[in-house]
Amino acid sequence: xxxxxxxxxxxxxxxxxxxxxxxxxxxxxxxxxxxxxxxxxxxxxxxxxxxxxxxxxxxxxxxxxxxxxxxxxxxxxxxxxxxxxxxxxxxxxxxxxxxxxxxxxxxxxxxxxxxxxxxxxxxxxxxxxxxxxxxxxxxxxxxxxxxxxxxxxxxxxxxxxxxxxxxxxxxxxxxxxxxxxxxxxxxxxxxxxxxxxxxxxxxxxxxxxxxxxxxxxxxxxxxxxxxxxxxxxxxxxxxxxxxxxxxxxxxxxxxxxx
Length: 258
Description:
- Helix 1 crosses helix 3.
- With 258 residues, this protein is an alpha+beta fold.
- The N and C termini lie far apart (43 Å).
- It is built from 10 helices and 9 strands.
- Helices cover 34% and strands 26% of the residues.
- It has 2 domains: 158 residues, Ribosomal Protein S5, domain 2; 86 residues, Alpha-Beta Plaits, CATH 3.30.70.890.
């Protein structure tokens, strides 16, 4: 089998507004944009014939790996000995460049890319919409990466993805400070301290705008509801609260227009 390399891209959140809650989850309206300058590489290689292997620089156990979770979700949707046997005989290699705990969706992107890899390689014929539904069981950001849109509004808890026709997305400089922002802790901090500040009408207004206009017209602290939570939870982050740096997701990555 010839080795086909798949690129697993990062994303940035142009804005992220929390508009409600759904049990323990938070409902959002957010603009996701692919950041193709930063990506992991993924491919299949010969496996051990006994167990499914995921090889890469991951900071988690196999059971917590999004690629492994994606396989479980896929085989729950489409039970198939063919898929299981293929994954025993072909391990997944991931050359990691997207940092973890960075708000860039690296794990979600890997899961989505893996679903496409299996769908393509085994000719499973699963529609993109069904792949997105499978991905939603793995993580909130996975459906966006499944659709492969350059720019999209993402709603609900990530399951609603609407493509945005952005004429021109401005170039950005992206950095990831050495601050490990734990997403669950950031959201807990938001719920404890800022849940009364929801702005659903403002969120809908942003969703109807072009990305370039959003970044030009609004301050970073206005655009990401988690920015204040990150500052409260990780005070060392204050050096990036200077009006120039926008927060992606729950951090720690920040970006500015160049």
